[in-house]
């Protein structure tokens, strides 16, 4: 089966200047991948006639489908429409259906039409008009020499609507597409190289119809298994067999699958076991509480949190002993133990979590450099602690602490 090749061209100076992040290309790539279309290049080009025309010519030489976003506004710096007309050598003419749609759009919103707005209904004569049901800039579909083009607005929700309603359903009618299935196995608490060593034999024995990719992120490593074939059910079953084979080797690190987040997995564990949790966050400053409460239904297991950033409140609210702070300091195993048990008692929860560290970039010492963090999880009859040696970056340290604390809670729920 021939590989269907796609190219994405994002147009706009604002993308090159970093004023706007190009989330469109990311979303389009994901959707095409799910359909078995291979994105061979993504190009970002500014509002320059020569550069845009060169991008068009370059894309046409290698792609079967070319998807263009941006540059369809009514102002003079929006060049996509006139340059597509130039590239395809056809005039821009009034499209009655497009003019009617733009007029109706403004009418429904009680807004006044301007001559520039009316011109949005004028399109290259050689394109197929594709209605934009959520905006004023129409989509434009072109076909030439077996290559298909779609020009869409850069506004994300407008682009997505055109892709979902028109482009994605049309692709299977143009090309024979393979069936591709992705499954994600999500791990935490183990680095990419260690994980690779652990599953090397299994990876080497994977069938040729299944590919494995390692996708590391902050404190996590995702294993993506991609299956190819002609029968979706068969592919799904083959992937599940491989997951079942590797799971005994990595089960203690696996917290979820596919789109499941660590905080979602924690919520499920707490709910199933009818347990509650409370937090005492110092260096993480409420970030872990934010993660937990981002999940709908977290009120059933999240009791509350304290952010005793100053030592005075570690003593007054959590009853950390003054002599503990004086002898060992705020960033110590002894202190986080007392913080965890203190917040456990304060909120009468089943688990108490604590974090205290030197987030940076200032405040480090030779004994406790920036990135030194202690975390703890307390429950009935136990206290588990862990020392982290993180980075020089403050935000990164806060995020990594969040992952480590949630993973410590996950382990304690499973083991205790």
What brief labels describe this structure?
416 residues; alpha/beta; Molybdenum Cofactor Biosythetic Enzyme, Chain A; Alpha-Beta Plaits; 5-stranded mixed sheet; 42% helix; 25% strand; elongated
In short:
The protein is α/β, with parallel strands linked by helices and 416 residues long. It has helices at residues 13-16, 23-35, 49-60, 80-87, 96-108, 115-119, 156-174, 192-198, 200-204, 232-250, 262-272, 287-293, 311-316, 322-328, 333-347, 394-415, and strands spanning 5-11, 38-45, 65-69, 92-94, 122-124, 128-130, 139-144, 147-152, 179-188, 210-217, 220-229, 254-257, 277-281, 302-306, 351-357, 372-379, 382-389.
Structure description:
The protein has 416 residues and is α/β, with parallel strands linked by helices. It folds into 3 domains: 5-174, MoaB/Mog-like domain (Molybdenum Cofactor Biosythetic Enzyme, Chain A, 3-Layer(aba) Sandwich), CATH 3.40.980.10; 179-257, Alpha-Beta Plaits (2-Layer Sandwich); 262-415, Alpha-Beta Complex (Maf protein), CATH 3.90.950. Helices cover 42% and strands 25% of the residues. The chain has 16 helices and 17 strands. Helix 2 (23-35) packs parallel to helix 7 (156-174) and helix 11 (262-272) packs parallel to helix 16 (394-415).
